[in-house]
Amino acid sequence: MLHEFLQSKRAEIIARTKAKVAARPAPRATEAELTHGVPLFLEQLIDTLKRSALSSDEMTVSATKHGNEMLRLGFTVGQVVHDYGDVCQAVTELAFELDAQITVDEFHTLDRCLDDAIADAVTEYARLREQSRADEETERMGALAHELRNFLNTAMLSFGILKRGAVSVGGSTGALLERSLKNLNDLIGRSLAEVRLQSTVQRRETILLAQFVEEVEIGATLEAKARGQRLTVEPAEYGIAIDADRQLLAAAVANLLQNAFKFSQASGHVWLRTHATDDHVFIDIEDECGGLSPGKAEMLFRPFLQGSTDRTGLGLGLSISRKAVQLHGGEILVRNLPGKGCVFTVQLPRTRGANA
Q1: In this predicted model, which residue has the larger pLDDT, 39 or 83?
Q2: Alpha-carbon span 113 to 49, nearest angstrom
Q3: Whether residue 28 is found in the same domain as residue 114
Q4: Do the Cβ atoms of 124 and 61 come closer than 8 Å?
Q5: Helix, strand, or coil here: 243?
Q6: Helix (H, G, I), strand (E, B), or coil: what is residue 84?
């Protein structure tokens, strides 16, 4: 029978399939796929063929189990489909070369089992991926609620002390209340920006860069004064325009500025500059963080990652900024200034035909 042929020629089929997988241009083969995936796929096919004589339900159970294994090993749907096909092709070639006594009906059974196994395994794979994403969202919401509760609790305790009149509002307790309320405001603002990013509704408009910078400067100046730092904003050239969702872009730039203040040294200096070419507009934010260690630039944009001793917020700011800028067809670039700081540059497409 066919499954007996597969079992007896297992080593040869695995060797042939690995060669096909390794030579495949896309999706590119991984070491785990070659070492574990190919044997797993063949065992799945043999098991499915055995069960084909029993019931379709048992075949589904086997394929469903395989879907779990693929998810655990980190395979993509493309790898699943292509690897099953490579196994089938290796089996067919070897059977033809050896003139194996396999009937037409058995080959039809092989094709049917292959189709069923792919469909069932991929379906289970997709279901588990969705479940994993749902679990990640639940974890994220839990972290957000925890942060909100902490800031709110601190603000309420501070307000309670001030209400009793035991201390002055201009002292340390008043400053603690102010920081807690600000942190709440920042966290809610970032969360709203993230929700907006997930929405398909955007409010695009033509925005003059000079006016946009003036609007951003107002909040950034207050932030700098509250932290005891300096902010220098160089005026933007009038007549330069961008097509953007004003709120999303403002949130992206504000997050970058807040990040610059957070990572800069005490009494540090932050700069905001702009320039443009024929095709692009650039918004530069330079800080005095002391410079970045090798390989750290890309890590800064990972959600929930915080690299400062200032642990306020969820570490979502830079991640949200990058998503918002990419949504506008742009990108955020990072340039390291060793021993001094770094420059985050928002690069956006320039809009033509705007008047000053």
Answers
A1: 39
A2: 7
A3: yes
A4: no
A5: strand
A6: helix
Tell me which of 134, 168, 183 is where a domain ends.
134
> What total of structural domains would you count in the chain?
2
What mean pLDDT do residues 270-281 have? 95
Max mean pLDDT among 2-11, 61-70, 242-251, 300-309 falls in: 242-251
DSSP-assigned states of every residue in 39-94: HHHHHHHHHHHHHTTT-HHHHHHHHHHHHHHHHHHT--HHHHHHHHHHHHHHHHHH
Query: Which among 315, 300, 298 has a CA at the least distance from the CA of 186?
Result: 315
Residues 119 and 213 grouped into a single domain: no
53: number of Cβ within 10 Å: 10
In angstroms, what CA-CA distances link 191 with 182, 205, 319?
14, 23, 12
Distance CA 341, CA 191 (A): 28
Q: Which of 65-69, 299-303, 328-332 has the lowest mean pLDDT?
A: 299-303
> Is residue 41 within 8 Å of 85, Cβ to Cβ?
no
**Cβ distance 231 to 220 under 8 Å?**
yes
Report yes or no on 176 lying in a domain.
Answer: no
Residues 211, 344, single domain; the answer is: yes
Q: Which domain holds residue 218?
A: 204-349
Q: Model-level pTM? A: 0.49
Question: 52 to each of 6, 44, 101, 106, 110, how far by Cα in Å?
Answer: 15, 12, 19, 11, 9
Model pLDDT for residues 55-103, shown as the tens digit of each residue: 555 555 655 565 566 656 666 666 767 777 787 788 888 888 888 877 7
On the question of pLDDT at 118 being above 80, the answer is no
Give the end of a domain, one of 105, 134, 163.
Answer: 134
